[in-house]
């Protein structure tokens, strides 16, 4: 598989194949109507300046791959879009079609992307691969999938099992690809969560953020986004359930640059003094794969996972250890009575619906940046 660079998908193609253009350029056979050039009318209609965003990467596959500046710029743009309730970017995807390819179930990601695309004047196409048990690369090769899609649409948003397949799609397609969750990463969630924490505390720099439970995709993207922003992150997982060591090391390199820190422990009492207490389900979608598909992550059967996490439930007693002004966060969907009690998720410290709303604004910013709209 040819390697890609940050600025273009590939410099050369396989011998004998036609040279392909950089990802930032529209495909030759593009059929979408020309995008309006002037944006001043949309901005002035909103009475707010139109945010502009340039990202250093052609895709959003992980938070780690973004530069520190990218993360700051996404949050700044998302906040500007939110302040105008989207009116300052109302026509920015005019004439653009965006495919949403989902191998797994979704409420927030699917709806927030679809609404965000529509609010920016674009055309979302939802393709529910999961409904038929299909996956990218099963019915036809990943290359054929990507090279068809780029002829039809301007961007791919994909929720997948395999991060490697997603990276292959991004490598093959000349259009931007957004990771809407894979087994290993959930960058849209991590960026939206960074927006929420910033709103609640003014900054992530120096803020004490703990994640307790399974060191899964959500945990990894939270860790990566907070380390890009100088947060002090404590990961509390039972032995055997921590995030992969290489991802922690990569996040540590960012923390070293931003003044952040990472602590990994199995001791649930490390919630003491934390300003953010975050958890997610103990059995992710890829741990309970649909019929016909083996779970990808080898994470053990659901019953043994639930048993392993029993001492890591976020309940009132645990929240009492945290800072008195701490917030509770969860990406949702929650399994009430497992990783969190009703009293916490419905309690005064809960920020879960603010988090969910911020998916919309953060993703609108990301789309703006990747489409250079
Ligand atoms: N948090 C999140 O990604 O929710 P969905 O699975 O409902 O999209
Ligand atoms: N860790 C969960 C997140 C769902 C939004 C999963 O992958 O199922």
Task: Write structural notes for this entry.
The protein is an alpha/beta fold and 373 residues long. The longest helix has 19 residues, at 352-370. Helix 2 (68-83) crosses helix 6 (187-201) and helix 2 (68-83) packs across helix 12. The protein is 36% helix and 12% strand. Mean pLDDT is 88; it is low at 1-19 and 25-47.
Number of strands: 9
Give the helix tally: 12
Rg, Cα atoms, Å: 20 Å
How do the helices and strands follow one another from N- to C-terminus? HHEHEHEHEHEHEHEEHHEHH
Between the first and last Cα atoms, what is the distance in angstroms? 30 Å
Coarse structural class: alpha/beta
User: Main sheet?
Assistant: 5 strands, parallel
Look at the structure and give the mean pLDDT: 88
β-sheet strand percentage: 5-15%
Shape: globular
- The portion of residues assigned to helices is 25-40%
List cofactors, ions and other ligands. phosphoric acid mono(formamide)ester, norvaline
The neighbouring-strand order within the major sheet is 7-6-5-8-9
User: Which residues form runs of ≥5 with pLDDT under 50?
Assistant: 1-19, 25-47
Give a brief rundown of this model.
This protein has 373 residues and is α/β, with parallel strands linked by helices. 36% of the residues lie in helices and 12% in strands. The chain is built from 12 helices and 9 strands.
């Amino acid at each position: 598989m040819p390697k890609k660079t940050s600025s273009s998908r590939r410099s050369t193609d396989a011998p004998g194949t036609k040279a392909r253009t950089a990802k930032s350029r529209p495909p030759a056979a593009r059929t979408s109507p020309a995008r309006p050039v002037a944006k001043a009318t949309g901005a002035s209609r909103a009475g707010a300046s139109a945010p502009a965003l340039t990202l250093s990467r052609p895709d959003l596959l992980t938070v780690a791959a973004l530069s520190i500046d990218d993360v700051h710029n996404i949050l700044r743009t998302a906040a500007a879009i939110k302040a105008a309730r989207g009116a300052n970017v109302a026509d920015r995807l005019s004439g653009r079609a965006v495919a949403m390819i989902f191998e797994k179930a979704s409420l927030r990601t699917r709806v927030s992307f679809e609404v965000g695309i529509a609010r920016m004047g674009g055309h979302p196409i939802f393709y529910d691969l999961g409904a038929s048990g299909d996956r990218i690369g099963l019915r036809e090769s990943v290359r054929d999938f990507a090279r068809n899609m780029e002829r039809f649409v301007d961007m791919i948003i994909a929720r997948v099992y395999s991060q490697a397949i997603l990276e292959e799609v991004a490598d093959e397609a000349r259009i931007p690809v957004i990771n809407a969750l894979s087994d290993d990463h959930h960058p849209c969630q991590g960026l939206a969560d960074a927006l929420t924490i910033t709103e609640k505390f003014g900054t992530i720099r120096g803020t004490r953020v703990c994640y307790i439970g399974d060191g899964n995709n959500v945990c990894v993207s939270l860790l990566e986004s907070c380390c890009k922003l100088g947060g002090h992150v404590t990961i509390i997982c039972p032995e055997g359930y921590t995030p992969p060591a290489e991802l922690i090391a990569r996040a540590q390199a960012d923390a070293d640059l931003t003044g952040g820190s990472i602590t990994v422990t199995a001791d649930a009492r490390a919630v003491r003094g934390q300003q953010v207490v975050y958890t997610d389900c103990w059995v992710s979608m890829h741990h309970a794969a649909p019929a016909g598909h083996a779970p990808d992550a080898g994470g053990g059967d659901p019953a043994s996972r639930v048993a392993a996490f029993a001492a890591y439930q976020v309940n009132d007693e645990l929240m009492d250890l945290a800072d008195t002004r701490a917030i509770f966060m969860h990406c949702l969907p929650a399994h009430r009575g497992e990783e969190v009690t009703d009293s916490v998720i419905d309690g005064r410290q809960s920020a879960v619906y603010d988090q969910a709303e911020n998916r919309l604004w953060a993703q609108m910013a990301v789309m703006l940046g990747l489409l250079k709209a």
